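Suppose you are handed a protein chain with no further information: no name, no annotation, nothing but its sequence. What can you learn? This example shows the usual starting point.
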Amino acid sequence: MYVGEVIGEPVRSQPAPPMMQSGRTRVTNVNVAPFRCVCRLVVRSYDKPGIAIGTGFLISPSHVLTCAHNIFPIQSPRTKSIEVFPAQDGAKIATRIMANGWAVSSNWQPQDCRTAGEDFGVIRLPQPIQQGYFGLGAFDPAGLTGRTVFSAGYPSSNNEPLATQMFSTSGAVTGAVAIDACGRDERGGETLTGRLLPAITNQTRLVAHDLDTSPSMSGSPLWFEDGGARVLFAIHVRSIDSGRRRAAVLLNDTARAMIAQWTQRTLPALAQSASPPAQIGDASSAEGCKGWMSDLQSFSKVVTDHYLRTEYPGFVGMAKSIWCSGDRKQCLVRYSEDMKVGVSFVALPDHVIARRFFHPTGPRCEYDFSCASNGTLSLQKRKCGPS
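A reasonable first move is to predict its three-dimensional structure. Written in structure tokens, the prediction is:
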């Protein structure tokens, strides 16, 4: 599980090519299904200033499904915060929710295109919202090739770098993708070589499609219509074959089981009494942190991220595992074999303590904490000293 915070400087989005309009249509009413389930994502990082923008979509009142590379942008992977804007409609006032937890497939490797079929993850919201959501149900992948399918997301371009307007698109699935090797194009961007297979099975991880997508639409849902029902089957993740095709993660039985594990056990929905979503422009006010204190895994990840950023500014790494004791008094977050950080909650609700685990000189730091009305957790250092 990975949880972010809003302390430090944010990640700048990458330049995007001019927006193609031929295959996309602006969504004029974002409040109808399924468009009201589609979310704009704004991600900030400890690595560089600015923002990264992507797309996701609700799969429950408390969970957003998206690409792993939206949660951990490849050029700035130390994610600090993720803002979720359900059904944002241009520059109009929109609901803004600060996510308080996220998880990605452990098999996804950001620099290895052969793991593109694992490029997906889940974001948790601090409180449920009644926006509607896509159901994650079984479907027959054998009938996908050649089928007309649909998608919607937030494309960015040189003219629209903030990607605030939703567009829809349609096209066809062209087959399964079998990746053979990764490479680099003349601009240094990652490419992949492989084979397009006409047959799609329940073991397929990546499928190809010809829908008109662009940067920031990664994480968009793909669905088809079946007898009046809308069936979610994939997540758009990237361009392939030098931009001639697009690829999407197939939500097969294995992927759906992993997502269910995240939403039910790793990132379970929090109590409905949590603070309501904030509107853009609202000032934050001090609120209680009961939601965070009820979810010590999320709490400990925010604390250890802040501890490493301030006490070990040169350290780069993502959390690998989080363990919490049965008495709920301490958690251990492992980033690598030689970097483990322990968090003590024995002084709640007064303050928390973090220190590098099994290290003779790693500093012991105490932090006061507070929560804004949008669910954001902030930390203030009391003192640090030798362990």
